[in-house]
Design goal:
Blueprint: H1 16-20, E1 30-31, H2 44-54, H3 72-84, E2 94-97, H4 99-111, E3 117-122, H5 126-132, E4 138-145, E5 148-149, H6 151-160, E6 166-169, H7 183-196, E7 199-203, H8 219-222, E8 228-233, E9 245-248, H9 251-265, H10 270-282, H11 285-310, E10 316-317, E11 325-329, H12 336-348, E12 350-351, E13 353-354, E14 367-371, H13 377-399
Parallel strand pairs: 1-12, 3-4, 3-6, 6-7, 7-8
Antiparallel strand pairs: 2-9, 4-5, 8-9, 10-11, 11-14, 13-14
Helix pairs in contact: 2-10, 4-5, 4-9, 6-7, 11-13, 12-13
The chain binds pyridoxal-5'-phosphate.
Pyridoxal-5'-phosphate (PLP) binds at residues 35, 99-101, 125, 127, 170, 175, 203, 205, 233, 235, 240, 245.
Amino acid sequence: MPPTFASRMDRVRPSAIRELLIYGADPELIAFGGGYPDQSLFPIDELRGIYDELLRAEHADALQYTTSDGLPELRAAIAERLRADGTPATADDVLVVHGGQQGLDLVAKLMIDPGDTIVVEDPTFLGALVAFNPFQPRYATVRIDADGLDTDDLAGVLRAHPGASVLYTVPDFHNPTGVTLSLARRRRLIELANEHDLLVVEDSPYRELRFEGEHVPTLRSLDTEGRVVQIGTFSKILAPGMRLGWMVASPDVLARLGLLKLAADTQSSTLNMTAALRFLQRHDIDAHIDRVRAVYRGKRDTMLAAMDEHFPPGVTHTSPDGGLFTWVTFPGGFDAARFLREVAVPDAHVTYVPGEPFFAGESRSNHARFNFSNVSKADIVDGIRRLGERLTERTAPLVG
Ligand SMILES: Cc1ncc(COP(=O)(O)O)c(C=O)c1O
């Protein structure tokens, strides 16, 4: 007999993205499914120099426990970067966490009682649903278009769910759709949050990866009542394996998040925090980010051009100004998960993430998320062409 697990485990399921890993053994496979950065861009030499130096007796404090909120100098360095981005912050406003994903877990612990209503975009980041689900929320979903979350729809959703306590949003180069929230909507979102007494979770791991277009102020910088918790990460600008992210929030919120962080894992890795700090002190991370952006921009251009050339009419994609993903919409009635299993993997040797698990509410089967950061340009062209040929055969009857 299995043990009787807590009822929250009813909502804990393997993620659809993990299931894609079973296809990993096919040597011909071109994987547009993951959300990984291009690891050839990791600053290996610089990091080796730093870790080498830290792993010496005179730097043994890098292997010691430290304060649970994070190394004070790293918190200060993160705050300085936030200020350079127009977001007011001091070291005291920053909590270092184990990647942005831990931020989502901590905010869920802080805010969600079973049955509480959480407002999320439709679709939303799957990893957020995975973090929130064990706390047994209900979800209310808000439409999203090329300008991000639709604040007119949000107003209606909040009227229909007066008890909603949290709004979770990915305003910059959204995962999975790639779209960015416009400034006018950011302002309106803050007004609505104030009116409806919401805590806003601004999850922005891709913010630094802008390829073009205007810089849009963070929600946290527009916040007038200390309602925005901003989550950031080194995963996409340095290396995700270091598992370093941060949260910025008003003092009463941050203090409670700090207590939850202490309970969860005592602190983030002293070694990795020290290494990240040294990297920021010694190397020009903005120059590094510029290199990463130039490569991803080229890959995005390649992917969108290949989709325009090879996908049949009736299959559309978003045009992200940054980040790692584009979101594809197939004709109504098309089942992207089934096509993946029956055609894309066995015939085209291509994977993507079918859109269904990104919908917290009613699921739609005719979408997919495509990643362009972790595939070479040659493979992008080849994979999109192979997929386009099969799609042309299969979708022609649907688009008539
Ligand atoms: C929207 C969003 N939030 C949070 C994360 C978590 O990233 P990490 O825990 O590596 O910082 C990701 C990772 O892909 C993401 O896409």
